[in-house]
């Protein structure tokens, strides 16, 4: 097909992009494919701001392909559906999370674990098989294959519900997979940011006892009074940390920067499980003596498959769980990123895309 014909199949889109490692976002015109037979087009209403957006903007992981439009906590309304689309119709409330494609045939895809497909296509900073580039949700619209679109439950707020599409599933999936949902068991949540505060809420809905382990003493009263945690440990307070030695069944570690694991492993009981979800730009050191001596387990987890993401949204709708958010305009995004880098957000920024993004 000629280049002109290819271009004719594109449509205009508008968002905010970073063009270099400074990570500074500014207005950006680009194109998206026309809605195909399997596709759903969304008018984007809200988009959450994940710490992974910040890692990618600043090229923390070394594979950012500029220009990059971040955003993978996307909520909107379907404006167009292709002729083979059965699950959605124009006007539906819909969501898009961390992925927009996979091979659909491998073992992972067949087991509803598309998030582990070797050919996964991420929502942004990725390319499609035809070489075209993907841009994320800090933008006016997006075109996505129906398999990677979610029904957004009616009773979930569109703005505060958006962060569930990454933060929510990223903490829900390991809790289910690693068997961390037994009521009455004790869960530690390390790092009280976007992922961490949703983990507290979901864990309380499972009936767990929850202790937040944080580097920010000023978050204590909110953790307990607003988010529902049972107790709070300041990670830099050795006496408090020591008093909690061997008290936890599980820990979910959401810290975004390199940090020692030994203090967390010490908090676990024998047979305890630590799941690391944070993606610091440097490897974490794994002390093996406490693992061996206490038959402890350290695992990882990467958001979740489409079926489980829908299950998580429905679970959150049933239990009235949404994020605590700071709603911002798109032109406040660079300041928000500075604050996110300093763990200064209560507890997720969400961009009011529809009311603040204009050419
Ligand atoms: P966030 O909102 O910035 O929260 C991270 C929290 O970590 C901060 O609020 C802070 O909590 C703590 N923290 C940050 N720097 C720290 C330091 N130097 N020492 C100790 N604690 C520190 O980020 P997020 O959006 O929740 O994401 C967290 C991490 O998970 C990021 O690395 C992100 O890329 C990754 N992630 C992974 C997946 C996955 O699928 N596995 C999905 C999404 C995100 P306190 O103030 O309480 O200490
Ligand atoms: Zn994310």
What does this structure look like?
It is a single chain. This protein has 13 helices and 19 strands. Helix 5 packs across helix 11. The chain starts with a helix and ends with a helix. The mean pLDDT is 96. It has helices at residues 3-8, 51-57, 107-110, 158-161, 167-177, 194-205, 220-226, 238-243, 262-267, 288-293, 306-318, 333-341, 353-356, and strands spanning 10-18, 25-33, 39-49, 74-81, 93-96, 99-101, 121-122, 126-127, 133-134, 141-145, 150-151, 186-190, 209-214, 231-234, 248-253, 268-276, 297-300, 325-328, 348-352. The strands form 5 sheets. Strands 3, 4, 5, 10, 11, 18 and 19 form a 7-stranded mixed β-sheet that branches. Strands 14-13-12-15-16-17 form a 6-stranded parallel β-sheet. The longest helix is centred in the last third of the chain and has 13 residues, at 306-318. It is α/β, with parallel strands linked by helices and 359 residues long. Bound molecules: NADP nicotinamide-adenine-dinucleotide phosphate (NAP) and zinc ion. Residues 50-52, 55, 166, 170, 191-196, 214-216, 219, 254-257, 259, 277-279, 301-303, 340, 343 line the site of NADP nicotinamide-adenine-dinucleotide phosphate (NAP).
């Amino acid at each position: 097909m000629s280049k002109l014909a290819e271009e004719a199949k594109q449509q205009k889109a508008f968002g905010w992009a970073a063009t270099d490692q400074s990570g500074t976002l500014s207005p950006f015109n680009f194109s998206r494919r026309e809605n195909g037979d399997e596709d759903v087009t969304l008018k984007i209403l809200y988009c959450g701001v994940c710490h992974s957006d910040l890692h990618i903007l600043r090229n923390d992981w070394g594979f950012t392909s500029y220009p990059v439009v971040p955003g993978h906590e996307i909520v909107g309304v379907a404006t167009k559906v292709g002729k083979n689309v059965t699950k959605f119709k124009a006007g539906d409330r819909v969501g898009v999370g961390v992925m927009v494609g996979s091979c659909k045939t491998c073992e992972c895809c067949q087991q509803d674990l598309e998030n582990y497909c070797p050919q996964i296509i991420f929502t942004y900073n990725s390319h499609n098989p035809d070489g075209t580039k993907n841009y994320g949700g800090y933008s006016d619209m997006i075109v996505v294959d129906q398999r990677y679109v979610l029904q957004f439950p009616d009773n979930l707020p569109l703005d505060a519900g958006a962060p569930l599409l990454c933060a929510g599933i990223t903490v829900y999936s390991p809790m289910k997979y690693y068997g961390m949902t037994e009521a009455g068991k004790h869960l530690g949540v390390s790092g009280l940011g976007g992922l961490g505060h949703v983990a507290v809420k979901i864990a309380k809905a499972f009936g767990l006892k929850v202790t937040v382990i944080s580097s920010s003493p000023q978050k204590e009263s909110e953790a307990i009074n607003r988010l529902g945690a049972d107790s709070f440990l300041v990670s830099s307070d050795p006496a408090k940390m020591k008093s909690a030695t061997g008290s936890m069944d599980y820990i979910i570690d959401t810290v975004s920067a390199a940090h020692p694991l030994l203090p967390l492993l010490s908090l676990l009981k024998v047979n305890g499980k630590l799941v690391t979800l944070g993606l610091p730009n440097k490897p974490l050191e794994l002390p093996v003596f406490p693992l061996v001596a206490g038959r402890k387990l350290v695992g990882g987890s990467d958001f979740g498959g489409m079926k489980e993401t829908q299950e998580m949204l429905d679970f959150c709708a049933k239990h009235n769980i949404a994020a605590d958010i700071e709603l911002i305009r798109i032109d406040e995004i660079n300041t928000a990123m500075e604050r996110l880098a300093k763990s200064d957000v209560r507890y997720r920024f969400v961009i009011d895309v529809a009311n603040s993004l204009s050419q």
